[in-house]
Design brief:
Order of helices and strands of chain A: EEEEEEHEEHEEEEHHEEH
Radius of gyration of chain A: 19 Å
Oligomer: homodimer
Number of helices of chain A: 5
CATH superfamily of chain A: Aminohydrolase, N-terminal nucleophile (Ntn) domain
Helix content of chain A: 25-40%
CATH class of chain A: Alpha Beta
Strand content of chain A: 25-35%
Strand order of the largest sheet of chain A: 12-1-2-13-14
Distance between the termini of chain A: 41 Å
Shape of chain A: globular
Largest sheet of chain A: 5 strands, antiparallel
Chain lengths: 248, 248
């Protein structure tokens, strides 16, 4: 399993992804799921993947090699596409290409062709954007109404996002809330695990403000987890007791 | 969908269940999922169900009518079984009986025979117990190590349970934490909805301490939801900012 979340706020974008992959609970490994494509001062793009690891890796390989754009005749990569829309189309073509190659055999063996992508970033003076892409290669986009998107196992980490994230939240708060959301998932689901990768992009900086790996020894994340646990306990203790029933 | 949770602590048992059923998102109705079987001073049993409504209702009908125990030749109901183990066996027989009647036709139409039960309670001077029963009629039981069990949609409401519930929590706190867990689920999943039914059993009282329906006008629950939202926001604000990146 996987948990990746992207949060688009007024001043920037936060992307967080775990690194655990598993084929059965006794076959666990660490693979980076959050990738950065950057030409400082010109573009910065984050890409997070969930689903079948072989599909994700094949898609990434194609993106690194470059894919022909049939409309322009050019070989495109995330480092040369001219817009975030074109980046989403390029990734869609890569996913469909891998489906063409591996999809039928996977399906013959009863496996689903499953891959999801979070794509975020900014190219030149166009807006900073965040997309959620599907196994079919199509995409939806975050808006101020729904500023966060998740792939992988979204449920454990959703309550805090639903309550604390809005488009006007500051970037550093979005990062903190995203890390709490990740912590809730790590705490409740063994198939999501440390280390956790973080990418923060501030609007119009056209470069990563943060691209950092949080491992088990990360003091800040350890402190955040402890404080959050304590705060949750304190929060429920501060709520009055239920008035139902005389004896309670 | 459904969300029901049972929490067994040293001094008692809390069971909470929502009431929303849906067959598609445009076909939503209210059905009680948490039921009480009580002979004051002698026994008190709570039963919560999730899964296919027709299966749950058929099982409940059989439990009300009574089922023959092939070992004793007696017709058993939850009001006359001699122990909680026998209660679990009785429910298991009821589930298997409904499977016998409806299972093959459901499966012919590509539907899964899906029903889960939370069974909790105490009979006489035997211990207060809590079980999770499956569509196959078998059961697992809560222990001090894992004092809570969930059926339906467990994920949104699990983080708070994982952090705040232990066997030595007081009953009233278990109720409060259970309601917060329900609130997290209501907030994030439209297929779980008010009203919410609550059953609280204190150990050795052999009667319900609370059997209450919480609707949208319930002042305490409304206050709890507001306070919890505020407390979550305050909790994340009290955590220091991430030290990653100079600009944050």
């Amino acid at each position: 399993m996987t948990y990746c979340v992207g949060i688009l706020v007024e001043d920037g974008l936060v992307m967080i992804g775990d690194t655990r992959t598993n084929a059965g609970i006794d076959n666990i490994a660490t693979f980076r799921k959050l990738h950065k494509f950057e030409v400082p001062g010109e573009r910065v793009i984050g890409l997070a993947t969930s689903g079948n690891l072989s599909i994700s890796q094949s898609v990434l390989s194609l993106l690194h090699e470059g894919l022909l754009n049939p409309d322009t005749g050019q070989v495109e990569t995330l480092l040369n596409v001219h817009s975030m829309t074109a980046a989403a189309h390029l990734i869609g073509r890569a996913i469909r290409k891998v489906y063409e190659i591996d999809g039928p055999a996977l399906e013959e063996h009863g496996l689903t062709f499953d891959m999801k992508v979070l794509l975020g970033g900014q190219i030149g003076d166009a807006p900073l954007r965040l997309f959620h892409m599907y196994s079919e290669g199509n995409a939806i986009e975050a808006t101020p109404d729904t500023p966060y998107l998740q792939i992988g196992e979204p449920k454990y980490g959703k309550p805090i996002l639903d309550r604390a994230i809005s488009y006007d939240v500051e970037v550093r708060d979005a990062l903190k809330i995203g890390l709490i959301s990740m912590d809730s998932t790590l705490q409740s689901n063994l198939s999501v695990g440390l280390p956790v990768d973080v990418l923060v992009i501030r609007r119009d900086e056209l470069g990563a403000a943060v691209f950092h790996r949080i491992d088990a020894n990360d003091d800040y994340f350890r402190d955040l987890r402890e404080r959050w646990s304590k705060a949750l306990r304190a929060a429920h203790l501060s709520i009055p007791n239920p008035p139902y029933g005389e004896v309670l």
